[in-house]
């Protein structure tokens, strides 16, 4: 089943002086449960594509269709609801809240959704075990290694049970051994937990964990 579809996506960035066309007609179908890597040289538009596909940014033209629904037809409220509940995000620099401990960081999306944290006790515990941080659940981000912080970010992305995980260079800030652990965790989420994953990376080894590699060159899929 196709969960996410890009149809003839164009993205321009304009300043007073000029317009840069970053995406030049991207067509893509993402199947449920697929783990896809988006590769390409620096500046080729990988992150732009990820942001447009995940509704964080709007295409200049073309469509992004999620579960059969054109994102452009949704109002801001509906779009942000989809982003908060159907999509999970992982970034290179973790973006954890320093004043919250591991467990609290993971539960933050529940708070944003107005959900009762008490009902998620088992789920939080389960996710902490999946990412291997149960023993560190009371620690604060500054007490954790980079790899552990990324695990917290992954756990936070999982708490609302998203359909798609968008990851922008999730191992970009980690040494190769730690990066490999994170990639194995993503692979596990894909295979055991049936998550659809779209990961931007410039690293061939990272991409080797995915089912399919999409290469972007000059704004198009090669
Ligand atoms: P990649 O992720 O492949 O390194 P990006 O998608 O970040 O590439 O950027 C692609 C191109 O678009 C680059 O030339 C970048 O400078 C430009 N770009 C990205 N975001 C913006 C923006 N918000 N405003 C203007 N130009 C941008």
Helix and strand topology:
Elements lengths: L1 E13 L4 E13 L3 E5 L6 H8 L7 E6 L2 E2 L5 H10 L1 E4 L11 H11 L8 H10 L15 H13 L5 E5 L7 H16 L4 E5 L3 H4 L4 E6 L2 E2 L1
Parallel strand pairs: 3-8, 3-9, 6-7, 7-8
Antiparallel strand pairs: 1-2, 1-4, 4-5, 9-10
The structure holds adenosine-5'-diphosphate (ADP).
The site of adenosine-5'-diphosphate has 11 residues, from strand 2 and helix 1.
What is the CATH C level class, in words? Alpha Beta
Distance between the termini: 23 Å
CATH homologous group name: P-loop containing nucleotide triphosphate hydrolases
How much strand?
A: 25-35%
Largest β-sheet summary: 6 strands, mixed
CA-based gyration radius: 17 Å
**How many DSSP-defined strands?**
10
Tell me the helix content: 25-40%
Q: Pairing-aware structural class of the strands and helices?
A: alpha/beta
CATH architecture: 3-Layer(aba) Sandwich
Please give the domain count.
Answer: 1
CATH topology: Rossmann fold
Number of helices: 7
Question: What are the segments in which pLDDT stays under 50 over at least 5 consecutive residues?
Answer: none
Could you say which small molecules are bound to this protein? adenosine-5'-diphosphate
> Strands of the largest sheet, in order across it?
6-7-8-3-9-10
SSE run: EEEHEEHEHHHEHEHEE
Task: Tell me, briefly, the overall form.
Answer: globular
Describe the structure.
The protein has 222 residues and is of the alpha/beta class. The protein has one domain (34-46, 76-221): 3-Layer(aba) Sandwich (Rossmann fold). The protein is 32% helix and 27% strand. It has seven helices and ten strands. The chain has helices at residues 46-53, 76-85, 102-112, 121-130, 146-158, 176-191, 204-207; strands at 2-14, 19-31, 35-39, 61-66, 69-70, 87-90, 164-168, 196-200, 212-217, 220-221. The strands form two sheets. The protein has a six-stranded mixed β-sheet, with helices on both faces. α6 links the parallel β7 and β8 (196-200). α3 (102-112) packs parallel to α5 and α5 (146-158) runs parallel beside α6 (176-191). The protein starts with a strand and ends with a strand. The model has no long low-confidence stretch (mean pLDDT 94). The structure holds adenosine-5'-diphosphate. Adenosine-5'-diphosphate is lined by residues 13, 20, 22, 40, 42-48.
